[in-house]
Amino acid sequence: MLTLLVVIGILMLRAAWLEIFQQEWLQQQADKRQMRVVTVPAYRGMITDRNGDPMAISSPVSSLWCNPQELLQAREALRNEYELSRQVSEATAGDTAAEESEAQALASTRFARLESGFRQIEKELGMEEGSLPAKLKEASSKQFFYLGRQLPLEVADAILDLDLPGVAATREYRRYYPLAETAGHVVGMTNVDGNGIEGIEKAQNDILAGKNGQTRVVRDAKGKLVESVISMEEMQPGQNVQLSIDRRIQYLAYKELKTQVSLLNAKAGSLIVLDAHTGEILAMANVPSFNPNNRKELEPYLYRNRAVTDKSEPGSTIKPLTIAAALEARVLGADVEINTSPGQINFGKYSVKDPKDYGSITLSTLLAKSSNVGASRVALLMAARDQWMFLNRVGFGRVPNAGFSGETAGQLTDYTKWGKVDRASHGYGYGLSASLLQTTHAYAPFAANGVFMPASIYKLDKPGLGQQVMSPDTASAVLRMMEAVVQKGGTGEKAMVDGYRIAGKTGTAYKYIDGKYQNDRYLTSFIGVAPASRPRLVVAVQIDEPQIDDSGGRAAAPVFSKVMAESLRLLDVPPDNLPSEHPPMPQPVAPANVGGAT
């Protein structure tokens, strides 16, 4: 009894010593083993369309990781325990045989459970059977190794339930894109770490990403969370970004463009729907596209937003702008006629030709027949400075700044370097370059009484400050002229929309490759405005290297017609096909392929 009392006294003195004199040191040691500072990942903001429908959202996932050394050591220890128990069992006989057999069975069960856990990890993560140990050995010099990133919660939880040593999970978020490939180039995507690398995800990464927080937690010996102690830094969720895109029109545009590109066996295609009065982009589609939800099949060449980054010669789609520039320079009137005889203009070794001698034609007929000679003569009436100034005012040679990364400024050289050939070729769309977004944007003033509104991929609470780049009279006059292109017999006849008056222009631009224009490789396009009496939308379609139809009127105009018709219906724009108010100008013309520009 005396001995027991002495032992109890010693223990009480030791406990008092630890509690009073070593409490702080022991608390520090416990904190080192149990307290952890963990990162609280920020919830990335949503990307929505103009109506608030989601285009990019974040869903919770888990990233599974482990300490390779700890996991391999546990596997080796269990293997050795199993082998030792087996050897002892084989060498044991008599009364202890049953006990040793039970020990062997226990060791076998524990080792089998671990091996089963390895197989389940391989199965859940899509690894080859038996490959996990080799991967762990390769990473054995590290203390942290990702088994899998952004796994569904149920998959990660199933693996964690195996209670394998050194295996843990970190909560993260993964982006999901409801429109998939339909809006891949606009929305873009994030990488595995949640940072934007393409499209709006990249352009607005700082706003969308938010800021991670930090909190101090207590974990048990197995690393499981026991409780949160204190928040050291508050997590700041990312802000939402609202685009000007209407997902209904976006889906329609992509579907029709993809169908036509496939039908014509074309290399690629792009399409833009623009609200002329606000500058907002309602749809932007490219084919081929990519599905940002399926990273296993992504190819880098598919990421390019061709409508924004690619520049090309606009071809005949620039002719309405040439006429507008001449009207603004007051070198001709809207009712004049242009003499195109004898059907060509010679500049030394260089010549501009029409399919035939059209003689003296009006400006409306010039557009309807897409006369290169007529457009060249109009351009030559202007001073080079006046022509350059107008093109620059409507966006050529300038970055659109619509909100995308990688927007091209195109090419518009200094007018002081232009010769007579340059002035003439610029008149029908050669010798300068622009993206489809730039050319579409340049048409917007025709639909907005001559006002050039800044282009935007983001929804605007109120329209920005526009610039008057041409008079309302000029815009109205050229718009009326472009209606002739879509009338029966015009090059853009297939762009007609039942119930609506359409104004537009076809274009075919041959590609300049290896120092010369290729007659079998070209870009076809159609850009139009509707309704012509009360303009609202500008729709531009571009088909790259179609193998069947060789003109904008046959390759691009049908897509324009379908997309414009449905877009007007979705926006509840009333029909304006009232011939009594504005009778169409008679233009008895036939489709023509004119010197590389139709």
TrEMBL record:
It holds the Pfam family PBP_dimer. InterPro entries: Beta-lactam/transpept, Beta-lactam/transpept-like, FtsI_transpept, PBP_dimer, PBP_dimer_sf, PCN-bd_Tpept. It comes from the Bacteria. It is found in: Membrane. The active site is at residue 316. Its EC number is 3.4.16.4. Residues 40-228 form the Penicillin-binding protein dimerisation domain. It catalyses: Preferential cleavage: (Ac)2-L-Lys-D-Ala-|-D-Ala. Also transpeptidation of peptidyl-alanyl moieties that are N-acyl substituents of D-alanine. Pathway: Cell wall biogenesis; peptidoglycan biosynthesis. One of its GO terms (cellular component) is plasma membrane. Its main location: membrane. It is an enzyme of class 3 (hydrolase). Keywords: Carboxypeptidase, Cell cycle, Cell division, Cell inner membrane, Cell membrane, Cell shape, Cell wall biogenesis/degradation, Hydrolase, Membrane, Peptidoglycan synthesis, Protease, Septation, Transmembrane, Transmembrane helix. Residues 269-564 form the Penicillin-binding protein transpeptidase domain. PANTHER family: PEPTIDOGLYCAN D,D-TRANSPEPTIDASE, PEPTIDOGLYCAN D,D-TRANSPEPTIDASE FTSI. Belongs to the transpeptidase family. FtsI subfamily. This is Peptidoglycan D,D-transpeptidase FtsI.
